[in-house]
Amino acid sequence: MKRLDGKLALITGAAIGLGAAIARRFHEEGAQVIVNDVNAEAVEATAKELDGAAVIADVSDSAAVTDMFAQVSDRYGRLDVLVNNAGIGLQSDKEAQRFMDLTRKQAEELARGDAIETHTDFTVNLGDEAWHRMIGVHLNGTFYCTREALRIMNPQNSGVILNMGSIMGTAGGSGLSSYCAAKAGIMGFTRSLARELASRNIRVNSIAPGFIETAMTEPFRAVHKGIADQTPMRRLGDPDDVAWAAVYLASDEAKFVTGQALSPNGGYHMSQ
Question: Which of 76, 144, 179, 248 is the catalytic position?
Fold first, then answer.
């Protein structure tokens, strides 16, 4: 069944990972896809695979985003679906290893009943540049892309916007304050937009994944088993678990769904 037949969709950060998985499922379901990323070679390869169009832009750059959507408007004259998926990893491999070592040492102190002397101290050591980059790509990028998409969607009085949140946007996570802040902002932005745009028949929802096996979670592979053990479904998710959620929310099956966070997380976070 072609659930997105005839739809034109732009997916940001779609050269690899979750974005590429969403683009593939959209294509299979009949959508024409526009694939965005900053990696020219990778984004062009994904677009070619899907008979789509590639557009290179850093979503944290307002001018680049404006230019990207001008290209879409000039070429197609419409836009049916925007997926704000672009994001960056939490930490470098070295920082991830340090974080896991400290977390493990703290857990050992707790298990022994000792006073806690080991602290992750992520936020106190977080520099301005790293903070602004995380907020810039995730939250600012979602805003910039949404604003420009609405210049196309508003005159149509139709459209769907999907924003990539996370369970970390509501549950929080030690040592992840910048990421959690960005994702919480995205999810609040989503709910506000859903109210604002209902009068224009534009639906806005977020997807709030749990732990998914992608390049972004690879630096934390050493703790994947522990995460799976804490997950009722006893595994991490795969990109398709998120892609199918995006297909549903973008389709007419979800025509009465707006302002919601759909959370593929295997039961890890029951109160999402």
Answer: 179
pLDDT class of 92 with cuts at 50, 70, 90: low
Which candidate, 215, 262, 81, 254, places its Cα nearest to that of 158?
Answer: 81
179 is catalytic: yes
8-89+132-217+234-262 CATH: 3.40.50.720
Tokens of 88: 């960056």
Q: Say if residue 270 is exposed, middle or buried (CB neighbours under 10 Å; 0-12, 13-18, 19+).
A: exposed
Does the predicted TM-score (pTM) go above 0.85?
A: yes
* 102-121 residue pLDDT tens: 777 887 888 898 888 888 88
CA atoms within 13 A on the CB side of 118: 14
Domain positions in the chain: 8-89+132-217+234-262
